[in-house]
What we know:
Layout: E1 5-17, E2 20-26, E3 39-42, E4 55-63, E5 68-73, H1 78-83, E6 91-98, E7 110-116, H2 124-132, E8 136-143, H3 152-158, E9 162-166, E10 173-174, H4 181-188, E11 192-197, H5 199-211, E12 215-220, E13 235-239, E14 245-249, E15 256-258
Parallel strand pairs: 7-8, 7-11, 8-9, 9-10, 11-12
Antiparallel strand pairs: 1-2, 1-6, 2-5, 3-4, 3-6, 4-5, 12-15, 13-14
Amino acid sequence: MAHPLxxxxxxxxxxxxxxxxxxxxxxxxxxxxxxxxxxxALAVGGEDSSMLLRRAxxxxxxxxxxxxxxxxVAERGRGTRELLRSRVGGTVDLVAPLGTAFPQPAGPMTAxxxxxxxxxxxLFALAEQIAAxxxxxxxxxxxxxxxxxxxxxxxxxxTPDVLVTTDDGSAGIKGLATLxxxxxxxxxxxxAVYSCxxxxxxxxxxxxxxxxxxxxFCAVEERMAxxxxxxxxxxxxxxxxxGVSRFVRSCVDGPCFDGTRVRWDDIGxxxxxxxxxxxMGVH
Length: 283
Protein backbone atom coordinates (compact mmCIF):
# COMPACT_ATOMS: atom_id res chain seq x y z
CA MET A 1 0.00 0.00 0.00
CA ALA A 2 1.16 3.53 -0.78
CA HIS A 3 2.01 6.19 1.79
CA PRO A 4 0.16 9.24 0.45
CA LEU A 5 0.64 12.93 1.05
CA UNK A 6 -2.02 15.64 0.94
CA UNK A 7 -0.91 19.00 -0.41
CA UNK A 8 -1.76 21.91 -2.64
CA UNK A 9 -0.16 20.98 -5.96
CA UNK A 10 0.66 23.68 -8.49
CA UNK A 11 -0.81 23.24 -11.96
CA UNK A 12 2.12 23.43 -14.39
CA UNK A 13 0.21 22.59 -17.54
CA UNK A 14 -2.87 21.06 -19.14
CA UNK A 15 -2.30 19.59 -22.60
CA UNK A 16 -4.54 17.71 -25.02
CA UNK A 17 -3.83 14.05 -25.80
CA UNK A 18 -6.46 12.85 -28.25
CA UNK A 19 -9.79 12.72 -26.44
CA UNK A 20 -8.04 13.26 -23.09
CA UNK A 21 -6.08 15.92 -21.19
CA UNK A 22 -2.78 15.50 -19.37
CA UNK A 23 -2.56 17.41 -16.12
CA UNK A 24 0.99 18.17 -14.98
CA UNK A 25 1.33 19.01 -11.28
CA UNK A 26 4.21 20.14 -9.10
CA UNK A 27 3.81 17.96 -6.01
CA UNK A 28 6.91 17.93 -3.76
CA UNK A 29 7.47 14.62 -2.02
CA UNK A 30 4.86 12.71 -4.02
CA UNK A 31 6.76 11.53 -7.10
CA UNK A 32 9.41 9.60 -5.15
CA UNK A 33 6.64 7.49 -3.57
CA UNK A 34 4.86 6.58 -6.81
CA UNK A 35 4.95 3.07 -8.25
CA UNK A 36 3.23 1.88 -11.45
CA UNK A 37 -0.46 1.31 -10.71
CA UNK A 38 -0.84 4.03 -8.08
CA UNK A 39 -3.52 6.69 -8.49
CA UNK A 40 -4.24 10.18 -7.22
CA ALA A 41 -7.39 11.80 -5.81
CA LEU A 42 -8.16 15.46 -6.45
CA ALA A 43 -10.72 17.75 -4.86
CA VAL A 44 -12.81 19.59 -7.44
CA GLY A 45 -14.86 22.77 -7.46
CA GLY A 46 -13.20 24.72 -4.65
CA GLU A 47 -13.88 24.98 -0.92
CA ASP A 48 -17.48 26.16 -1.33
CA SER A 49 -18.42 23.58 -3.93
CA SER A 50 -21.29 21.12 -3.49
CA MET A 51 -19.05 18.48 -5.11
CA LEU A 52 -17.74 16.90 -1.92
CA LEU A 53 -16.17 13.76 -3.37
CA ARG A 54 -12.69 13.68 -4.81
CA ARG A 55 -12.06 12.36 -8.33
CA ALA A 56 -9.55 9.55 -8.84
CA UNK A 57 -7.08 9.48 -11.75
CA UNK A 58 -4.27 7.15 -12.78
CA UNK A 59 -0.77 8.50 -12.26
CA UNK A 60 0.76 8.39 -15.73
CA UNK A 61 4.22 9.74 -14.94
CA UNK A 62 6.18 10.66 -11.82
CA UNK A 63 9.47 12.58 -11.95
CA UNK A 64 11.19 12.70 -8.55
CA UNK A 65 13.90 15.07 -9.83
CA UNK A 66 11.37 17.64 -11.04
CA UNK A 67 8.92 16.74 -8.25
CA UNK A 68 6.09 16.42 -10.76
CA UNK A 69 3.30 13.96 -11.44
CA UNK A 70 1.25 13.70 -14.61
CA UNK A 71 -2.39 12.54 -14.61
CA UNK A 72 -4.62 11.62 -17.54
CA VAL A 73 -8.11 13.09 -17.32
CA ALA A 74 -11.18 12.30 -19.41
CA GLU A 75 -13.86 14.97 -19.21
CA ARG A 76 -16.93 13.09 -18.02
CA GLY A 77 -19.04 15.53 -16.04
CA ARG A 78 -19.10 18.63 -13.92
CA GLY A 79 -16.23 17.60 -11.66
CA THR A 80 -13.69 16.85 -14.36
CA ARG A 81 -14.89 19.86 -16.36
CA GLU A 82 -14.16 22.14 -13.40
CA LEU A 83 -10.78 20.50 -12.86
CA LEU A 84 -9.75 21.02 -16.48
CA ARG A 85 -10.61 24.70 -16.16
CA SER A 86 -7.87 25.07 -13.54
CA ARG A 87 -5.54 27.97 -14.18
CA VAL A 88 -1.87 27.24 -14.90
CA GLY A 89 -0.07 28.59 -11.86
CA GLY A 90 -3.04 27.85 -9.62
CA THR A 91 -3.27 24.93 -7.20
CA VAL A 92 -5.39 21.83 -6.67
CA ASP A 93 -5.86 19.78 -3.52
CA LEU A 94 -4.06 16.48 -4.18
CA VAL A 95 -3.83 13.22 -2.24
CA ALA A 96 -1.26 10.84 -3.73
CA PRO A 97 -0.01 8.26 -4.29
CA LEU A 98 -2.89 5.96 -3.39
CA GLY A 99 -3.59 2.26 -3.74
CA THR A 100 -1.53 -0.90 -4.09
CA ALA A 101 0.70 -0.90 -7.16
CA PHE A 102 1.51 -3.69 -9.62
CA PRO A 103 3.94 -6.25 -8.20
CA GLN A 104 7.48 -5.27 -9.11
CA PRO A 105 9.35 -7.80 -11.28
CA ALA A 106 12.49 -9.13 -9.60
CA GLY A 107 14.46 -9.51 -12.82
CA PRO A 108 14.26 -9.73 -16.62
CA MET A 109 10.94 -11.01 -17.96
CA THR A 110 8.72 -10.81 -21.01
CA ALA A 111 5.45 -8.96 -20.46
CA UNK A 112 2.46 -7.97 -22.55
CA UNK A 113 0.51 -4.82 -21.68
CA UNK A 114 -3.17 -4.56 -22.61
CA UNK A 115 -5.31 -1.47 -22.12
CA UNK A 116 -8.60 0.07 -23.10
CA UNK A 117 -8.60 3.83 -23.78
CA UNK A 118 -6.66 5.84 -21.24
CA UNK A 119 -6.29 2.72 -19.12
CA UNK A 120 -2.83 2.54 -20.67
CA UNK A 121 -1.75 5.54 -18.57
CA UNK A 122 -0.36 3.58 -15.58
CA LEU A 123 1.29 0.89 -17.71
CA PHE A 124 4.14 2.70 -19.46
CA ALA A 125 6.32 3.27 -16.40
CA LEU A 126 6.22 -0.45 -15.60
CA ALA A 127 6.98 -1.39 -19.22
CA GLU A 128 9.99 0.94 -19.18
CA GLN A 129 11.16 -0.60 -15.91
CA ILE A 130 10.95 -4.12 -17.34
CA ALA A 131 12.81 -3.05 -20.49
CA ALA A 132 15.51 -1.35 -18.39
CA UNK A 133 16.00 -4.62 -16.47
CA UNK A 134 16.76 -6.45 -19.72
CA UNK A 135 13.26 -7.78 -20.32
CA UNK A 136 11.03 -7.55 -23.38
CA UNK A 137 7.60 -5.95 -23.69
CA UNK A 138 4.66 -5.80 -26.09
CA UNK A 139 1.44 -3.80 -26.17
CA UNK A 140 -2.17 -4.18 -27.27
CA UNK A 141 -3.86 -0.79 -27.07
CA UNK A 142 -7.59 -0.67 -27.75
CA UNK A 143 -10.37 1.92 -27.73
CA UNK A 144 -13.79 2.57 -29.20
CA UNK A 145 -12.33 4.99 -31.79
CA UNK A 146 -8.88 6.17 -32.88
CA UNK A 147 -9.31 9.43 -30.98
CA UNK A 148 -9.77 7.55 -27.71
CA UNK A 149 -6.50 5.62 -27.92
CA UNK A 150 -3.79 6.76 -25.56
CA UNK A 151 -0.01 6.33 -25.74
CA UNK A 152 0.39 4.51 -29.06
CA UNK A 153 3.53 6.42 -30.04
CA UNK A 154 4.98 6.01 -26.54
CA UNK A 155 4.50 2.25 -26.85
CA UNK A 156 6.09 2.19 -30.31
CA UNK A 157 9.11 4.03 -28.96
CA UNK A 158 9.60 1.16 -26.51
CA THR A 159 9.00 -1.84 -28.75
CA PRO A 160 8.03 -2.87 -32.28
CA ASP A 161 5.52 -5.29 -30.78
CA VAL A 162 2.52 -2.95 -30.66
CA LEU A 163 -0.98 -3.86 -31.81
CA VAL A 164 -3.81 -1.31 -32.00
CA THR A 165 -7.50 -2.18 -32.02
CA THR A 166 -10.60 -0.01 -32.32
CA ASP A 167 -14.23 -1.03 -32.08
CA ASP A 168 -15.11 0.92 -35.23
CA GLY A 169 -11.98 0.07 -37.23
CA SER A 170 -10.81 3.70 -37.41
CA ALA A 171 -7.29 2.58 -36.39
CA GLY A 172 -5.56 -0.79 -36.42
CA ILE A 173 -7.54 -4.02 -36.13
CA LYS A 174 -11.31 -3.73 -36.00
CA GLY A 175 -12.52 -5.35 -32.79
CA LEU A 176 -11.81 -5.58 -29.08
CA ALA A 177 -8.34 -5.46 -27.54
CA THR A 178 -8.71 -9.11 -26.55
CA LEU A 179 -9.15 -10.24 -30.17
CA UNK A 180 -5.41 -10.69 -30.93
CA UNK A 181 -4.43 -11.44 -27.32
CA UNK A 182 -3.80 -15.19 -27.49
CA UNK A 183 -1.61 -14.86 -30.57
CA UNK A 184 0.27 -11.92 -29.07
CA UNK A 185 1.03 -13.87 -25.88
CA UNK A 186 2.40 -16.71 -27.99
CA UNK A 187 4.32 -14.43 -30.37
CA UNK A 188 6.42 -12.74 -27.69
CA UNK A 189 6.39 -15.59 -25.17
CA UNK A 190 4.78 -13.40 -22.51
CA UNK A 191 5.25 -14.61 -18.96
CA ALA A 192 2.81 -12.05 -17.60
CA VAL A 193 0.01 -9.87 -18.94
CA TYR A 194 -0.62 -6.52 -17.27
CA SER A 195 -3.95 -4.88 -18.08
CA CYS A 196 -6.07 -1.89 -17.20
CA UNK A 197 -9.58 -1.08 -18.35
CA UNK A 198 -13.22 -2.00 -17.81
CA UNK A 199 -14.06 -5.14 -15.84
CA UNK A 200 -15.37 -7.06 -18.86
CA UNK A 201 -12.05 -6.55 -20.64
CA UNK A 202 -10.01 -7.51 -17.57
CA UNK A 203 -12.01 -10.69 -17.15
CA UNK A 204 -11.42 -11.67 -20.78
CA UNK A 205 -7.72 -10.81 -20.55
CA UNK A 206 -7.35 -12.97 -17.45
CA UNK A 207 -9.11 -15.93 -19.10
CA UNK A 208 -6.93 -15.78 -22.21
CA UNK A 209 -3.66 -15.10 -20.39
CA UNK A 210 -4.27 -17.97 -17.96
CA UNK A 211 -5.17 -20.34 -20.79
CA UNK A 212 -1.88 -19.44 -22.49
CA UNK A 213 0.15 -20.05 -19.32
CA UNK A 214 0.84 -16.40 -18.44
CA UNK A 215 0.19 -14.59 -15.17
CA UNK A 216 -2.52 -11.93 -15.24
CA PHE A 217 -2.26 -8.69 -13.26
CA CYS A 218 -5.18 -6.27 -13.57
CA ALA A 219 -5.71 -2.66 -12.56
CA VAL A 220 -9.45 -2.21 -12.00
CA GLU A 221 -11.38 0.97 -12.79
CA GLU A 222 -13.93 0.93 -9.98
CA ARG A 223 -15.53 4.18 -8.81
CA MET A 224 -13.69 5.34 -5.70
CA ALA A 225 -15.63 7.91 -3.71
CA UNK A 226 -13.05 8.40 -0.95
CA UNK A 227 -9.89 6.70 -2.20
CA UNK A 228 -8.71 5.79 1.31
CA UNK A 229 -10.83 2.75 2.21
CA UNK A 230 -13.50 4.41 4.35
CA UNK A 231 -16.67 4.53 2.23
CA UNK A 232 -16.67 0.90 0.96
CA UNK A 233 -18.17 1.87 -2.42
CA UNK A 234 -15.41 0.19 -4.46
CA UNK A 235 -15.47 -3.31 -2.96
CA UNK A 236 -14.87 -6.41 -5.09
CA UNK A 237 -15.21 -10.12 -4.24
CA UNK A 238 -11.68 -11.53 -4.26
CA UNK A 239 -10.36 -14.97 -3.30
CA UNK A 240 -7.60 -14.72 -0.71
CA UNK A 241 -4.45 -16.84 -0.58
CA UNK A 242 -6.23 -18.96 2.05
CA GLY A 243 -8.97 -19.79 -0.46
CA VAL A 244 -11.60 -17.69 1.35
CA SER A 245 -13.55 -15.10 -0.68
CA ARG A 246 -13.84 -11.65 0.87
CA PHE A 247 -14.93 -8.20 -0.19
CA VAL A 248 -11.81 -6.08 -0.56
CA ARG A 249 -11.52 -2.37 -1.27
CA SER A 250 -10.19 -1.48 -4.71
CA CYS A 251 -8.71 1.77 -3.44
CA VAL A 252 -6.43 0.29 -0.76
CA ASP A 253 -6.24 -3.48 -1.40
CA GLY A 254 -6.07 -2.69 -5.14
CA PRO A 255 -6.51 -1.28 -7.67
CA CYS A 256 -3.95 -3.83 -8.90
CA PHE A 257 -4.95 -7.46 -8.41
CA ASP A 258 -3.99 -10.94 -9.53
CA GLY A 259 -6.73 -11.36 -12.13
CA THR A 260 -7.28 -15.02 -11.28
CA ARG A 261 -8.37 -14.07 -7.76
CA VAL A 262 -11.07 -11.57 -8.72
CA ARG A 263 -14.55 -13.08 -8.98
CA TRP A 264 -15.48 -11.16 -12.12
CA ASP A 265 -18.93 -12.75 -12.51
CA ASP A 266 -19.92 -11.70 -8.99
CA ILE A 267 -18.98 -8.01 -9.12
CA GLY A 268 -21.99 -5.98 -8.02
CA UNK A 269 -23.54 -8.89 -6.11
CA UNK A 270 -23.21 -10.35 -2.60
CA UNK A 271 -22.38 -14.05 -3.13
CA UNK A 272 -23.54 -16.24 -0.26
CA UNK A 273 -20.12 -17.87 0.14
CA UNK A 274 -18.22 -14.61 0.63
CA UNK A 275 -16.90 -14.25 4.16
CA UNK A 276 -19.32 -11.98 6.07
CA UNK A 277 -22.23 -12.40 3.66
CA UNK A 278 -24.43 -13.89 6.42
CA UNK A 279 -24.02 -10.70 8.44
CA MET A 280 -25.37 -8.79 5.43
CA GLY A 281 -28.55 -10.84 5.47
CA VAL A 282 -27.60 -13.23 2.67
CA HIS A 283 -28.67 -16.82 3.32
